[in-house]
Amino acid sequence: MPHRKNIYLFYKQTPEMEQHVQPLQTFLKENGFHIVTDLEQAHIIASIGGDNAFLQATRKTGFRDDCLYIGISTEGLGFYTDFTTKEAEHMLHAVNNEQVEVRRYPIIEVSIDEEPPFYCLNECSIRSNVIKTFVIDVLIDDFPFETFRGDGMIVSTPTGSTAYNKSVRGAVVDPLLPSMQVSEIASLNNNEYRTLGTSFLLSSQRTLTLKVVQDGNDHPIIGVDNEALSIRHAEKVDIKISERQIKVLKLKHNSFWQKVQRKFL
Ligand code: NAP
Ligand code: MN
Description:
By secondary structure, this protein is an alpha/beta fold. It folds into 2 domains: 6-98, 3-Layer(aba) Sandwich (Rossmann fold); 107-243, Tumour Suppressor Smad4, CATH 2.60.200.30. The chain contains 5 helices and 16 strands. The chain has helices at 15-30, 51-60, 88-96, 164-167, 256-264, and strands at 6-10, 34-35, 44-48, 68-73, 83-84, 100-112, 118-120, 123-127, 134-140, 143-156, 179-187, 200-203, 207-212, 221-224, 227-228, 236-251. It has a 16-stranded mixed β-sheet that branches. Strand 9 and strand 10 form a beta hairpin. Bound molecules: NADP nicotinamide-adenine-dinucleotide phosphate (NAP) and manganese (II) ion. Residues 50, 52 line the site of manganese (II) ion.
């Protein structure tokens, strides 16, 4: 990072945020960074805010694999934020003293009806938008695995495993495992309808296909991280771990499992 110093600051432009950002900008300029407003010129993309700001920053900048992402929080530390605006000196000290490392995080690639893909850092979720249950055929590498009937399904990355996935009792997955986890939201299980009933983990070699059974419930809500896709109709959703990964700057002594402990235990 030190010799590639063009930094793009991604934040919600409100008067309150400017109060956090102004001193940080001054600090960065004093320390040899160039604040750029053209994304094309950026080597580093810093999100300022919480985890949701980081999710927005990766999405709005197109999940660049030639940039380094940094999550800077305005409050406490989160899952994607290893630094805070209040401790900019600490951040620079860590960078200059090799207390930081670059981690590659797996992201999920979602293609709907063979269209160009969307990427997700946390998860892709698919839910019915009506009160009736909806039905999805679940295929693993084209093998018909199960037929799901219920509210919906979540496919999460390892770093997303602590978010929505965890709320439906999915497992927390080490981000060093490039994998995706498939979790159910309120599946109907009886003598007629049967699904595995537990979450399962797929390797990065697999493709998961969700086919929305077209029985009038064919307008599901498809969420990619914290955004809903504005797609009116979806039949076939292909999901896999992308070959692309994002690079994130983190503190060495702030491992994923320390974050999990800090947030949940
Ligand atoms: P939000 O509704 O404000 O956030 C939900 C919470 O999830 C916030 O506390 C957020 O942290 C946290 N979070 C985000 N990513 C996380 C991660 N990887 N690990 C642990 N916690 C995480 O919406 P948002 O902040 O834009 O976050 C979007 C995420 O919310 C979605 O990607 C989805 O995972 C999650 N979500 C959860 C449920 C549920 O649990 N029932 C339902 C819908 C969506 P910050 O406060 O730092 O933003
Ligand atoms: Mn939030």
